[in-house]
Specification:
Helix content: 40-55%
CATH topology of the largest domain: Butyryl-CoA Dehydrogenase, subunit A, domain 3
Number of domains: 3
CATH class of the largest domain: Mainly Alpha
Strand content: 5-15%
Length: about 400
């Protein structure tokens, strides 16, 4: 069977892009107003602040709109808008500042194993926390100093080095190790943590835990001084003999790799939304400039080469948006979450963000190279999503595997 035929057999896509479901469209409008009226005017300040500066007032305002509970079911005080709702919201926020988007995106990623587990005990203990008035953040603790991609590629698990360990002792586990580059770790109330059961080589015993971070043995490390995404803080988490009850295991012992892969498949659509937003933000600045700047007696937009660049930028953004919406819709309607569509959406959108931001700097010219115009910030931000939730190399492996797997059906 050809790969074309195999993909042609997938369910028809019925989402009308001109008319999102009413509840998602209404939420999109709310988030867009917040992003443009509140976040965008602060974007330069957020970018140039000290690495460990965190705008709690801004987060509090976004939190009040429900940005930390988009996917949480209504029975637990959430909005219940699924991955499509998350992805659309991420684009709107990222068009103003992707770091702000990631504060909420990382929180929702920390919730994902709990949602995925279907465990009513875990869900009733943790999910209602996000329905209160005061902001509660969460984080997802996977990456380590010596282990990144090896924790999300099953074939590489045996080669993972110095992975955080978990040891069973009666009705609890004891965790030891250090996680690195963890968004929200500085302030998160809890983390979804992946550790390797003692006695299993590499990461072949990977297991998922929900860990409260206010207990003895948890140390929050220094904040990383990042190139972009500076509105969200990334830091280390060190665990020294941290006790986690058995009921906080998600998916059973040795189930961590499957959960990690599943949450990556779900999250990649929303990260593609962030990259699309970064591209859109850069494009909007370039479009405004090219409509106002006069060279050779006419606006830049009337020059053929400029028009070609703007047209290509616009087409790429629209294509990236269609891909992430398609992927998000499939995530919301298929079990297990699909692998190909979210990986393809992120693979494409991440590249679009860099290409469009690069073109925007070129079009705006000298001002695009200056910090006060904001375009160079978007170019720096554009590289962020290429690192988290799957590098282009990891995504290429996932996509290619799906293509050849289709041939075997």
């Amino acid at each position: 069977m050809s790969t074309t035929t195999a993909h042609a057999r997938t369910p028809d896509f019925e989402l009308n892009f001109d008319r999102l479901p009413h509840e998602i469209s209404a939420f999109q409008s709310t988030v867009r107003a917040f992003a443009q009226d509140v976040v965008l005017p602060r974007a330069r300040q957020l970018d140039q602040a000290a690495a460990d500066d965190f705008d709690w007032d801004l987060v509090r305002e976004g939190y009040s709109l429900g940005l930390a509970r988009v996917a949480i079911p209504q029975q637990f005080g959430g909005l219940g808008l699924g991955m499509l709702g998350i992805s659309v919201a991420m684009e709107e926020l990222a068009a103003a500042d992707p770091g702000v988007a990631l504060v909420f995106g990382a929180t929702m990623l920390g919730q994902t194993p709990i949602l995925y587990s279907g465990d009513p005990h875990l869900q009733s203990r943790y999910l209602p926390r996000f329905a209160g008035d005061e902001p509660v953040l969460a984080c997802n603790a996977v990456t380590e100093e010596e282990a990144g991609c090896d924790l999300i590629i099953p074939a590489n698990a045996v080669h993972a080095r110095d992975v955080m360990t978990a040891r069973r002792e009666g009705d609890h586990y004891v965790l030891n190790g250090r996680k690195k580059f963890i968004t929200n770790a500085r302030f998160a109330a809890f983390a979804s943590v992946f550790a390797n059961l003692e006695g299993h080589p590499g990461a072949t015993g990977l297991t998922s835990f929900i860990v409260d971070l206010d207990q003895p043995g948890v140390e929050r490390g220094p904040v990383a001084d990042k190139m972009g995404y500076r509105a969200c803080l990334g830091s280390e988490l060190t665990f020294t003999d941290v006790v986690v009850p058995v009921e906080n295991v998600v998916g059973g012992e040795l189930g961590g790799m499957a959960i990690n892969m599943a949450q990556s498949n779900m999250a990649r659509a929303s990260v593609a939304g962030i990259s699309t937003g970064v591209a859109r933000g850069a494009f909007e600045k370039a479009r405004a400039w090219c409509g106002e700047r006069v060279q050779g007696g006419k606006p830049l937009r009337e020059h053929q080469f400029t028009a070609a660049k703007l047209a290509e930028m616009a087409a790429k953004i629209d294509a990236a948006r269609l891909l992430y919406m398609y992927a998000a819709n499939k995530v919301d309607n298929e079990l297990p979450a699909p692998e190909y569509e979210p990986a393809a959406a992120k693979f494409f959108a991440d590249r679009v963000a860099i290409e469009v931001a690069d073109a925007a700097v070129s079009l705006v010219g000298a001002r695009g190279y200056l910090r006060d115009h904001g375009v160079e910030k978007m170019l720096r931000d554009a590289y962020g999503a290429r690192i988290y939730e799957g590098t282009p190399e990891v995504l290429a492996l996932a996509i290619t595997d799906c293509l050849y797997r289709a041939d075997e059906l």
